Amino acid sequence: MKLALIPAIFNCLFYFAAQTSAVTVESVPSASSDGYIHTELDKTVSLTCTHDAASEADDELVWLRNDALVSLKEENKKGQSRVCISPVILKDRETTFTCHLRSNATNRVSVVLNVTYPPSLTEPEGITVEEEASMFLRCAIEAYPPVTSVVWTLNGTEVDLKAAQMTLTNDGLFSTLSTVKVQRSLHQATYQCITDSPMYGARTQVFTVNVTDKTLKFPLYPMIAGIVVVCLTTILAVASRWKKIVKCCK
Known about the structure:
Mean pLDDT: 85
Strand content: 35-45%
Distance between the termini: 90 Å
Number of helices: 3
Helix content: 10-25%
CATH superfamily of the largest domain: Immunoglobulins
CATH class of the largest domain: Mainly Beta
Strand order of the largest sheet: 1-8-5-3-2
Largest sheet: 5 strands, antiparallel
Order of helices and strands: EEEEEEEEEEEEEEHEEHEEH
Low-confidence stretches: 1-21
């Protein structure tokens, strides 16, 4: 990953704790005994690296993000070095940050970001669809830890897919309730997508579906072409008739 694509990493002033022989990494929030830092989306993680090198010539520190070098200011390399990840984003999940001495890369400490997040369900959504059209209701269910269940309801009752003539699919990112032919009597209703997460509990997204009458759709371009042909034919017929009238009058 290019350094320019890591805008969330910058000098920071906070710290807390995990260590090895010559290099120590402290963090806020603190790391677990196995080196994992538990955090959430949009939070801030602060890392501070220190060392016990014997001489100033050996005290320059290096940070890596998944083995890619992190750009540091010169004053943030000597003796103690700090970086911040703010805000934490989805791509930071399972990211490894490593600090070591430039003069001795074997003296290093690594920590891993364990980023948790709920499904990103949106505000209630109103949908208008014509009769006999297709309809797709999509609910974002991606989360970490993964959701344990997804339930769709129609007017407060779990959807009977056969009776409602609907199909339900789930690809791990979205749960989609759909029908290829909307009928007002079956599908005009309030739908709820309800997810359950071991960490974030139950969350709901609401869809209110309004079914309108089917409108007759005319093929616009063929119609225009037909009108043009008729007009040209009429003009040519009138012109031909006019020539005959002129000849008769001479």
